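Input record (Table S2, row 316):
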Amino acid sequence: MNPSDKLLVTGASGLLGWKALSYFLTEFDVRGTYLNHEIGGISSLLDRCDIRDHNEVSQYLKKTQPLIIIHCAARTEIDAAEKDREACYKINVEALKPFLDFSAKNSTHFVHVSTDAFFSLREGMQATEDMEPTPLNYYSETKLEAEKLVQNADIRSTIIRTNIFGWNLQDKTCLSEWIVDGLVRGEARNLFEDVLFSPILTSRLVRAFGEIIRSKTYGLYNIAGTESASKFEFGLKLAEVFGLSSESIYKSMLKDSPLKAKRSHNMALDSSKFYSQFPALSATLTDDLIEYRNEMIYFEWPAKESLASLQTFYSR
Ligand SMILES: NC(=O)c1ccc[n+]([C@@H]2O[C@H](COP(=O)([O-])OP(=O)(O)OC[C@H]3O[C@@H](n4cnc5c(N)ncnc54)[C@H](OP(=O)(O)O)[C@@H]3O)[C@@H](O)[C@H]2O)c1
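Output record (NAP complex):
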């Protein structure tokens, strides 16, 4: 690998994509694609490319000639996917075709970001790579079908199942940002005590991408947090690490929520296959949350009003 090797991140304006783009900046000749959000700060590295348009994608790949593609672009809103299935299918499944065709012709390493969402496990279990997924909603069905397309393509690919938290550059919040925002403002946050997951900080996940790419590791890998927690426990731990009162965090139950699509009670992943190969990347949830808190201090968190109050908090 050398610095002139071209690496492409699709969905580089999203929660994970911008982190991947930033991480590889000094190592490769990096570009990213977006659709609606031309993110400031990294915009000079971004190209608008609608992955629903196969011709546009083929032309773009021909022009940019990536040696590595990290595919983060996806339709990720679970309830919206249920309502507009066709749109979700086009983006999460059909859009793969020109990427896979290009990768086959050019020996490109295709890193496909998948999910934990198609697991619905009994309490106390964690899904290993050889367990059969059982999707409960349309989003998960499309993510599973996408994996099969990648697996069946004659290419060098790594499929990564995960669940992430981090900072969005876009004006939207993921679960952890929404919790921090609630803690800072003292606004109630009802968190499921009956939904288990094993989240990983986006910064650590992109370091894992680095190891996978440098070592040319192919196949299917779970790369998630080393611990599973309920969403409620995650909120409490986040409050503790951020040094904020957890008084506004309340227990709730999935069955009482207004969410439309069916969701799993346990989608925890067992990532021991990955960590046994790359033990240096293993970290506890607390380690990730400390890094998350430190990132917030150095980094312009988009929830600007809350950022001001947190900076005041940390300058005390
Ligand atoms: N977030 C999670 O907790 C989570 C959990 C498990 C797995 N994952 C997986 O991780 C990956 C990244 O997720 P994320 O949370 O970073 O996603 P995200 O923040 O929702 O970002 C999605 C990205 O896809 C782009 N995109 C959507 N439709 C497109 C289209 N038609 N053409 C081109 N680009 C398009 C978006 O571009 P614009 O915003 O510019 O329109 C954005 O950059 C996805 O594969 C997701 O399934 C995420």
